[in-house]
Amino acid sequence: MEPPVISYSTFHRMGLTVRNLTSLLRSTDDFELHIIDNNSQDDTWDYIQTLNDSRIKSRIRFPLNFGPIYPINLNLTRRRPDQYFIVLESDVYLYASDWISRFMKAFETFPEVGLLGVPRPVPLPGYEPELITMEKSGISYNQLKYCEVGTIRDFVPGHCQCLRPELLNTIGYWCEENSYGDAEISIRINKYTPFKAGLTTDIPIDLTQTIPCQACEGISFCKLDRVTKTCFDIRDSKYKNVSFSTANRWKYFEYFNELNQDKRTVYCASIHDPASYRTHLYHMDWALENFNYYAVNAN
Description:
The chain has eleven helices and eleven strands. By secondary structure, the chain is of the alpha/beta class. The chain has one domain (5-297): Spore Coat Polysaccharide Biosynthesis Protein SpsA, Chain A (Alpha-Beta Complex), CATH 3.90.550.
């Protein structure tokens, strides 16, 4: 089996990136890592350039942040047809060095699983999905029980997800036309493909959101004054996912309306893959408007 592709996006918060990329590079499993920095205004890019690991296959710094879906889909174009694809956000700290092997055991045991995520260490009341525990040969995962459009809980959170190659060959890319990320792709998989989505039971993580400057492992790279502004302050001022979702919710509903009316297939195209949007319905104007929202408001 070929090593999986890992898509790793950074967006300010250098302190978390240093801590959590260090934990990733302690992994004993093989992988192909592609790092994209979404125009961080701290010293994240300087740190990324110092990394020395043969599993890092590319590192790119975008001149503008175009939102979270744009870099994922670019990295997805780097995947070969038989490779698994992992999305890992920079706020995830991995405790287990064999976490990829744990993912693979679950996929091998349950051929119906297309997407597996990792649960939040601390549940968010009102946002946690209802689950059905599936167990076989000492391996288990928690399958999404429901997947209804418009809910705030029926999806696998996007901080750490692994997708089966056969599923990706069916669904293409994350949907750029609504850019709803984990909230759209979980429903698309569970409701409109033969595959299931769920959560692992044996990959422990930490989702710490801030680190005191005096405890930061990346302080030697930091050029901020850390009194009037920290890397976390910069990120908070430029984080626009909530306002984006509110302004563009109609695209999310219209996408699923088109899917239900057989105006389109479950396959989503990407601006990074011209062949995909030449052969599948793709609202280029919606996608460009979404990218531009972040370019204008989140840089």
